[in-house]
Amino acid sequence: MDLLAIAATIALLISLIVWLKLHPFIAFLIASLFAGFALKLPADQIPGIIEQGIGNTLGGLVGIVCLGAMFGKLIAVSGAAQKIANVLIQFFGQRMITWALMLTGFIVGIPLFYNVGFVLLVPLVFSVVYRSKLPAVYLGIPLLAALSVTHGFLPPHPSPTAMVPMFNADIGTTLLLGLLVAVPTMIVAGPLFAMTLKNIQSKPLETFLPAELKDTELPSTWNSFITALLPVVLIASSVALPKLASNEQQTQLLQFISNPLVVMLLALLVATYTLGIKRGTSVTKLMVHYGEAVKDIALIVLIVAGAGALKQVFIASGVSQTLAELLNGVDINPLLLGWLIATIIRICLGSATVAGLTAAGIMAPVVAATGANPNLMILAIGAGSLMCSHVNDSGFWMYKEYFNLSLKQTLMSWTVMESIVGVVGIVGVLVINGLIT
């Protein structure tokens, strides 16, 4: 009966989002209430359990996500993203321009959330299209593959960051392993796959041509690259820092410095000076940009909160442990199972974030019961959450309209690219798992 309750809850969640078009946060709350009753929790305790799930999930996450949004906003409005794109395109030249665009999407996509990165970088692709006369899809797919990879695999993006506490994983280790998976994945789904798309012709709408800043208005090359990559360096170093201590006092200090919230605050403060104050932007104007950034990601934070509520209902009812014990006897790699569950939910719902967090709520007890690597489980679910993007995904339609493509062309390019990311991603996760176990 418990498994039927889980299946009914997921079916209800899908129906509320797909058919009734409810916002995922509202749908998660309704599904959580339904699950509470279906799993026979005491009625008076269900609201408290939901509140506990929301609080536990957002407690260690909301600060990191909001600081990350502010950081990404500054990278965009300061011109650092444009500078990075210009330098890479000039360095690689037209013969390897798809590799330059892939790296642009990867470097800029680390601090920028997906929708913001899409809106910012796709117009830059179109400016390259008009200058080089090369097909828009051929140039755009490598950049978008890199954006998808950072969105699904790498902190401080919301979904992988939110899964870190759900699995008791380590954010620095997740980032390092995520980079190992991300690089070959975006190469295959980006420049290599793009070579098959040269015959897809499209004329991007002139509306989306960017109003680029003048070169004199852009930050320096070093400033742009070092500042944009600072969160990656700091989060990655958080793995090693505590191990350098020689006494208890040093251990406490290094653990404080390597805390993800402190890391993101430090990165933002550095960027505020190097890309803002140092270049003549007033603190008041910077704070306006930061306020806009938080508004941009508010709905994502609510989705994460809703997923946390549903996860807590599963835990409180004991069904998570029942599910873990059941799956523990099934002859399937738990990483592959997490990927498969995320894939199914992604196909049904469309949202990568919702798919990833819903699958994580189901798989959290399985990780504890099977001893699966929690950092790799985050990446496996992230890969599944990117699979098979189609007509129920907002990203599918953004790509179609921006690139002015037919439905068939969008399926042949975007949907296949996202599926390649998902398949190569899980293969990379399984290879790493085989090497370290």
Largest sheet: none
Counted by DSSP, the helix tally is 20
SSE run: HHHHHHHHHHHHHHHHHHHH
Helical residue percent? over 70%
- Mean pLDDT, as a whole number? 86
Based on helices, strands and strand pairing, what is the structural class?
Answer: mainly alpha
End-to-end C-alpha gap: 35 Å
Low-confidence regions: none
Rg for CA atoms: 22 Å
By DSSP, the count of extended strands is 0
Number of domains: 1
- Beta-strand content estimate: under 5%
Keywords: Cell membrane, Membrane, Transmembrane, Transmembrane helix, Transport
Membrane topology: Multi-pass membrane protein
Transmembrane segments: 55-76, 96-129, 136-154, 174-194, 222-241, 253-276, 297-316, 336-364, 411-436
Family: Belongs to the GntP permease family.
Would you kindly provide a written description of the structure presented here, covering whatever features stand out?
It is found in: Cell membrane. Belongs to the GntP permease family. This is Gluconate:H+ symporter. Keywords: Cell membrane, Membrane, Transmembrane, Transmembrane helix, Transport. The protein is mostly helical and 437 residues long. It has one domain. Helix content is 76%, strand content 0%. It is built from 20 helices and no strands. Helix 6 packs parallel to helix 8. It is globular, with a radius of gyration of 22 Å.
